[in-house]
Amino acid sequence: MSAVEVLAADAGLGEFFKTDIVREMFPRIVTEGMRNTLVYTSIAFVGGLLIGLLLALARISRRRPVRWAAATVVDVVRGLPALLTIILIGFGLPIAYKSLTGNLWRWPFGTLGSRFIPGCLALSIVAGAYLAESIRAGIEAIPKGQMEAARSLGMSHGVAMRKVILPQAFRIIIPPLTNELTALLKDTSLIAILGVQVGGREILTYARTLTNARANTTPLIVAGIAYLVITIPLLRLVAMLEQRAKGGRR
Amino acid sequence: MITIRSLTKSFGENRVLLGIDLTIEQREVVCIIGPSGSGKSTLLRCVNRLEDPTSGSIVVGGVEVCDPKCDLDSVRTSMGMVFQQFNLFPHKTALGNVTLAPLTVRKQDRAVAEAKGRELLARVGLSNKADAMPHELSGGQQQRVAIARALAMEPKVMLFDEATSALDPELVGEVLQVMRDLAGEGMTMMVVTHEMGFAREVADRVVFMDGGVIVEEGAPADVLERPTHERTQSFLARTRRN
Asked: Residue B91 and residue A171: Cβ atoms within 8 Å?
């Protein structure tokens, strides 16, 4: 009988919410769950920004094949469920490597590495595909006189991009970027599909383990609160930044 | 200093320049006037290759800028450009705008670049605005910062693309004064302008363009007071009426 069926059979507030289980969850929900959620989010967001920036620059390249290739990657990744991308990279990539080379592919850092490295990599790619569109929109929102002024001073295209265009573009797209960060934070729970390892669990996976073990939904409610503690300030921040952008200068 | 030969430029079907020949000597101030759409801004933008010419030749300080092998970034450092819309970098202070190219292109030491930058800001009358952001400055002040920014690369030529056209009338004078000073110091200048008074007073030569060709050129007194060509006469008559 699965945990959900047990819960359904014994429905009642006791099985729904028990304060001693809440107590039992501390400090692990913070030291393991929230910590890992934040670690995975940070790694995937930094990776996503790098991939997103590369894809965005490729999307506005002067060379048609480059533009076309980047658009394809962005559309394919955005068109797939994040879960499928994670499974393909976590399980599919090593299998593909083995059938191509005959050798076994090993991610570094043992079993923990074999789960969270491909997981974060897949999340970076997913985030990168979404971020690419925001970053491109930001770059295209900068008046073309800015690039002309920079080039007329003798800056190369790359220097002008780095010193003049991108700093302005990123300032504009902080709100959509923060939205993407929130979405990414929630998606970190999908990494668990690649396997669960004590010490490497994020909020939801830790809570689900405990829900199954105690046949009680309390951990899920605590997990929900743990997510909201992080995401609501982020969402409010976006709202504030958007408000300021609307009423503010330039 | 600048030699333009048989220059043409088309945007698709639209032929904007139909064969321009123009020579600008060192220390010469040449004002280019003409109705909008006559191709005068396009001509200026071809000189530093913000537009790619369709055919012809432009030699600046001995370098053929139309040559695909020419090092554009390096040639452009010898030409400062001032735009109608200022195009200051809004995320940098006035001083930051002036020092950005010396720091990134010339790899100058920050202290050296900033000392030079402050000197240039003083030269355009803005020594007290070094730390101001562009949005805190008036249009006239922004354009003066833009001139200082262009001068920071120590160009041999300055290109002005309708530098005062976006300014409120009461702010035009301060920008023209900076340009007048620059001309007085012997800067070679190519000035696309609607300011007939400035052309008459400062230019060594006035070039009248219409329909993608140079219709008439010569000393300001000749072109502006005694134009020989009918198109020049009617254009000047129209500008006087306004």
From this structure: yes
Least Cα separation, residue B225 to chain A (angstroms): 35
Model pTM score? 0.87
Q: Is B196 on the interface with A (CB under 8 A)?
A: no
Predicted ipTM?
0.94
Q: Which of A108-117, B5-14, B165-174 has the lowest mean pLDDT?
A: A108-117
Say whether A154 and B105 touch across the interface (CB within 8 A): yes
B158 three-class SS: strand
Whether A152 has its CB under 8 Å from any CB of chain B: the answer is yes
What's the pLDDT tens digit per position in B71-127?
999 999 999 999 999 999 999 999 999 999 999 999 999 999 999 999 999 999 999
Question: For residue A150, what are the contacts with CB-CB under 8 A and spacing of at least 6?
Answer: A159, A160, A163, A164, A165, B89, B101
Share of chain A above pLDDT 70, in %: 93
CB contact under 8 A, A146 and B87: yes
Instruction: Return the H-helix or E-strand segment holding B81.
Output: strand B79-82
CA nearest to A222, candidates A6, A3, A18: A18
A148 touches chain B (CB under 8 A): yes
Read off the pLDDT of residues B32-41 as tens digits, 9 standing for 90 and up.
999 998 999 9
- Distance in angstroms (rounded) separating the CA atoms of residues A105 and A114: 10
Peptide bond into A167 cis (omega under 30): no
CA separation, residue B170 to residues A72, B140, B167, B173, B174 (Å): 53, 9, 8, 7, 9
Contacts of B105 in chain A (CB under 8 A): 153-155, 159
Q: Count how many Cα atoms sit within 13 Å of the Cα of residue A4 in the half-sphere of its side chain.
A: 1
Fill in the DSSP letter of residue A104: P
Question: Is the CB of B63 inside 8 Å of chain A's CB atoms?
Answer: no
The three-class DSSP label of residue B145 is: helix
Min Cα separation A177/chain B (Å):
19
Q: What is the Cα Rg of chain A in Å?
A: 22
Closest CA to B86 of A163, A146, A166: A146
Chain B residues near residue A154 by CB distance under 8 angstroms: 73-74, 76-77, 101, 105, 153
Check B100 against A171: CB less than 8 A apart: no
Residues A152 and B48 sit within 8 Å (Cβ to Cβ): yes
Distance in Å, alpha carbon of B145 to nearest chain A alpha carbon: 13
